[in-house]
Each structure stands twice: as C-alpha cells, then as structure tokens.
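Side project, low priority. Logging it here so it doesn't get lost.
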Amino acid sequence: MPLVPRRNARGGGLGGVTRVRHSAADHGGQEAAALTNLGTAVANVGGQAIDHATEIEERHNRTEAERIRLETQRELNDLQDLYRQDQGKNAVDRHGEYLKELERIQSSASVKSPRQQVKDMVEFVVAGDVEAQRADLTRHVSKQQTAYEIQTKRSILDMAVKNAVRNKDNMNALAHELGDANAAIDQLSEMYGWDADTVGLAKLEQSTKMHEAIINNHIANGDLQAAMEHFEMFHEDGIDPERWDSLVLKVSKSNEVSATVAYKEAGRVMKFMDEFNRAPDEFASTLATLQSVGTPTAQDWARQLILRQEAVDRVNDVTAANSLADQEAILSEEKSIASSTIELGYVSALEDHIHATRKAVKNGTYLDLLSDRGHAPSQFSPLEMGNLTRETLTDRASVVDRESEALGVDIDFFTASEQAKFNAGYEAMDIVKRVKTIGRLKENTSPAHFKSVLRGLSADSGSMAVAAEKAVYDPKQAVAIMDGMATQKQNKEFNPKPALVAAQKKKLARTFPMSPEIIAPMSDAAEALYVHNRAKGNNSYTMDDAVNELFPTVTHNGNTVLRPTSMDDGEWVTFTEGLTTDRLTELGNGTPQYEDGTPFDAELLNPGFFDFFGTSAQLVTRGTNQYAIVVEGLGFVRTEDGKVYTLTVED
C-alpha cells in the first residue's frame, strides 16, 4: 500500500505518514494528488525561510548604514569646528580646501559600504548632510569675505595717513593718497549703507587726519613755517573747521628758536600732566621759559599751562577721595555749572582721567596706569614667575583689594606685562609644574583674583577651575584633569559622545540641585578625567567613575551633598554636629531665619534632634563648599533681607 503524506488538521503542517488503501481504479490519481500537496508544502516552508533571511539582512543593513552615517556626521562636525575658527582672509583662502574635504568625507562614506543596499541608504542620507554643511560653509565664507573687505578698506585709510606724511612735500602724491582713501570710503559706505551726509563727514574726517598728521610732523621737526603754510593751503578745503583753533595753537608763526623749544616743552609737560603725574620741576622751568620769550603765543601757552596745573590739582583731590561712580557723579554735576576757563579745563581733565581709568580697568592695565601716574608704585612690586611666594601673592592681593574698593570696581590681579610673562612661563612648564603653580595661586588669592589670572591665561574653563581646586588638596588628581584637558584637544578619539556628557550633566543636576553655571565645570572636569583614564588604556572607566572620584558625597539628614574640598567624612560629621546658630551667622551670608522672620534654630540640623521631633532640616549643596538649608514643608531658610541663606565652609 502506498505511503501518502497528509497535512495535520490541527497544526496545518505536515502530519505523520498514513497508510491509505486504494482501489485499482483510482490508484494513479491519488498518487499524483499526494505528490502535488507535498511540493506545495515544501515551497511554503522555503518561502518563509527566505522572508526571514531577507528581514535579518535588511535589519543588518540599516544598522550598518546608521553606524556609517554617525561616523560621517562626526567627521562633518569636526570639519565645521575647523572652518568656523577661520576668520577674515583665512576663511576665504581655505574655502576650496574645505570643499574638497567635504567631497572626501562623502566619498569615504560610500567606500565604507561594501553592500549595495547599505551604500544606497548611506549615500542618500549623507548627501543631504554634506549639502547642508556646504551651505553653512558658503554662508560662513561669505560673511568673512565681507569682514575681510571691510578690514582691508580700513587698512587703506590708515596707510593713507602714513603715506601722506611720507609724501608731505609732493602735492600730486598727496592728492593720489586722498583719492585712494575716498574710494575706500565709498566702498565702505556701500557695505554699511551710509547716506550722503555720513559719507561726506567720513571723507572730511579722513582728509583732516591726513593734513593734521602732516602739520604735526612739521611741528615735530621744528619747521613751524611749513606747518603754517600747509594749514593755510588746506584749511578751507580739507580740514574740519572744528579743528582749526587747536591746529593754530600748535602752529606758531614765530621762528624764534627759544619759542620753538618752549612750545615743544610746554606740549610735553601738558601731556605729562594730562596723564596726571605731578611734575613741579618741569612745570616751573617751562613756565619761566615761556614767560621769558614774551611773544603772544608764548603768553598763551603760559596761561594754558597754569590752567592745566590748577585742573590737575583739582582732579587729584577728587579722584583720591572718591570711587569711580562718585567721580562720574561729580563730573556730571560740574559739567552743568562750569563756565570759567579754569572750570572748563578742570571738567575736561576730570573727564579724561575717568575715561583713562575705565579703559585701563577694562583692559586689565590699571596697575600699570597707576604706576605711570606716579601713585605709590612701591606698594605693588612687580611679580615674576619665579617669585610667586605666599608673601608676594598676599601682598599683591591686599593692593588689588584696596584699589578695587577705592575705585568701586574689580581690577585684575596681574598687570598686563606681568600677565604676559606669566603666560609665557606657564606655557613652558610641564603639567606637574603647572599644577603646582595654579595651586599656589589658588591657595593664596581670592576666587576673584584667581579668576582674573585664568582669564588672562585664556584658561577660564570649568575643567581648569576644578583642577585648581584639586591642586591645593590632591595634586595628582589635578594632574590627571589637566592631562585629560590636553588630550581632549590633541586626540579626540577618547572624547565621550555628546549624549553621554548630556546625560551625565542631568544626573549631576538631579544629585546636586545647583545652577547650570556650577554643574557645567563639574561636568567638564569629569569629562577631562574620563579622557585621561581612557587614553591610559583603562577602557572600563566610566563617566560615573570620574564624577565619584572628583566629587565625593556625604549625607546630612538623609540628603546627599557634595563634601567640602578640605574635609574627610569624619571631619564633615564633626563640623555639622558642632554647628550653632551663632556659628551659622558667622559662616553664612546673614542671620538664618524663616520667611516670616522667625529665627532658625541650628539644633534642627542635629540628626538626633531630627529623630526626636520628626522635623527635617537638611543641608543641600549650593556650590563648591557652599550649602543652603531646607526645612520640610517650609522651604529654604533665608536671611533677614530675604535672600537664600548660604553657609560657606572655610578651607
């Protein structure tokens, strides 16, 4: 009897082999039907296997395409960081290089795709990314092209003044320089959209600068006659009328040698006095010379010199006893009532003094200016890299604090020249010496002073701030952070992915409810330490490891806080258990109290007290070595003026 496979009625698959009895008449038809059913079943199974294999392959292709796309996007991001650093002419000159690099990146993405299906997916997506990057590059270069053109035109104007002096005796050359300057101004006007009046004023200002430079050059060479002749030739057509009086005062018609010397000496002394140095000897001798010459011009210079001396005396009195803000208030009041020549001179001198001081504070050159003005230079001896001792640093800190308080504004810790020497010396050090140096600075200066040094070093980063903190208590850890900072710049392959860094920042913010300005440097330092360890071959090292190593935590009444830099766990317990209300007032920013003015009792911070009364008073991290107090159901403890009470743990 033949064996005929039948489908299992329950499962739909092939069932067991069943014996079937046929008559002689239907034997051939039944055999054919059985064979047909068997072929169909086999085909179904084969089709299912092919579909499953196809799905696996497509999923693999998508994964592979995504990996290549992410690698390509990182290359594009790195390229964008590079070309955005190029400014002006550099951006224009290197435009072609970056376009070629875009083509290389796109081509490289295709080469990385051995399968045609992956290649098609990658090329479609990467083409869009590259096109967007090409558009961004074009916009950047176009903007820098305009900036470069403006810079070029302004350079032409500056050079025109120098060339005018060089060709002061050649009228044709002078006219040519003026023509070039006017053409540059016309081009600038198109870029800035100036109206006709603005263009006219700009051309008059440029012409005045050129002629004034020539006149000043003649005066400096003692050729007063040539100076006056040039003024007479061009003052009605080429020199701003508002400058006539000052130029005439400079250009004396007298050819007497003694008068020439006297005028030049008077100008030097006045400039000296404008910078607010006291110059009694120079003042007296120059005044005597002017009076002996006896010409009208000499007499006028003598009067100006006397007025200037009186103005300087008054300015010194005002500035010695008032902050910058008070000086500006006095200036505003004096401007409204000044009428005499002496008063107007005093107002002008005070205005110049305040302007010079503000500018020096902004540029970090105030101590240099103070020395130039002759005010007690011995009180701030220059600092050298090899002389950054505890004594010299604390002495300088006291001078800076005193001057900052007197001015009412913060001034930089180093003079400009000192900062330049410090930067050069710092760059020449190895990392260990750098850590020792920043540790010494951090330990012997205030946070504001130290920040000004880092700002001058162009290293005011979050990582550096944490490294400086660690340099005082854990130099090895500071070395690791700074080594990681260097590796981040030199070898980006060890840098964590942005998503990992972002997740770590969120985690830090959940653990320590602090502002982004405080969380950011913590995250930066953890990233640098992570890179350091990864570069050393520690592939199991994580961002969590870096955070735990850099920022050890302790608890207070069940709340996790950042442990003070200078304490271990035992010292922290001793410190918190010893807090009294008087001690809180001493270490905080005021007297701790509730919002309704009720005094806060420091006993609530004692864990035993908390257990007994069931009232939670917890310390929460507010910053490095800083903590606020939160009472359950009542919120933050505050000061008498309504600010959040902040306890600062002294190192």
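Brief comment: The longest strand covers residues 617-623.
Revisit when time allows.
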